[in-house]
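Let us work through a complete example step by step.
Step 1: write down the sequence.
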Amino acid sequence: MRSRFREWGGRVLLLALSTFLGLLAVEAAARALVWNWTREPGVVRHPFARFDPDLGWSKPENASGILRRSEYRVALKINSSGLRGPDIPLAKPPGVKRVLLLGDSFTEGYTVEEPLTVRARLEKELSSALSTPVQVINGGTAGWGTDQEVLFYEKSGRAYAPDVVVLLFYYNDIYRDGDLRIQPWFDLDETGSLVLNNSPVKPHEEFYRAEPFSIKPFRGSMALALLQPRLDSHPRVARALSMFGLADPPAGLKEIPEEFHPFGRQRPREVRRHWQRIEALLGRLDASVSKDGARLMLFYVPARFEVDDAAWSLTRQVYGLNAQWDRNRVADELGRIAHDLDLPIVDPRAAFRSSEAKAASTYFPEDGHWTEAGNEVAAKEILAAIRKRLILSPP
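Step 2: predict the structure and record it as tokens.
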């Protein structure tokens, strides 16, 4: 009996020691990994931005560095015009076609290397398909809304003499995403006309600060710190780990963000007012683009929960959304507006769903922006729409 007890005791002790050494090795590896990340020259946590009195913020010319997040590492370089992508002179060479992309962080594409962005992929595919040189210009900036995108076109974008302008629209563009004190914004007056507010913008701190990359240990552990962001998508796992002090317990139902309300029915008048503002902005942009002899096209950027059933289920669970909430409502309404304005629109939700179904993840789970696969899907959908509608024809 004693020998058997000693035998089992030895096994338990060996198991405990092995577990301890394994966890110690994981912690050491995590600390070494983060140390290497933080030691890299020029590494930052946020995309480049600076104060801009006309737009609130824009990108500084010729800035370069390494953007580091837990899910990706990207070399960011801003050209001499303050845009991401190769330097392109304002004067358009003879025989060259140009496409200007307008949008926010999805358009800027800071989650992937520049040759893998929508801009670069679309330029390559269009040049091949049309058998003529095509230049695609990335006019996207992280955090911008439709207001700033319209102002950017009127201030700078039209100078490139684009043949096609593609505005990439994300659901949070309906409700102004950000602090209205640091950005210009349009509203509707009593007659339904657009009125520009907070312009010029008063000086303020950069929209994104040039913070060095850093990760704080969670309860003394760097391995647990790396684990925490991933638990947002796995509340059951987080709840189980919290029982052992390895994670914070999941909070109760989160407050529904304002930008979510266009998917629901709780604030019909307020949402309608925002949609009217968006329709007026798109009409203004279309008039400007048409006046310049170009064509405006809309591209709907779906959120991950709009194309992934598991992500939608988790979103409903986190915010306590009932059956009245419809993830298709925003894309459908934008499609109606595009029809009324006679604007071509690309709705890529089916293509993204198909990619997700094939286990080709098009979104980073934590960050929520497109992966390389997501940028590829978007570029192919824009290309297909341009070719189908004969919007951009060879000279």
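Step 3: interpret the result. The CA atoms of residues 161 and 304 lie 34 Å apart.
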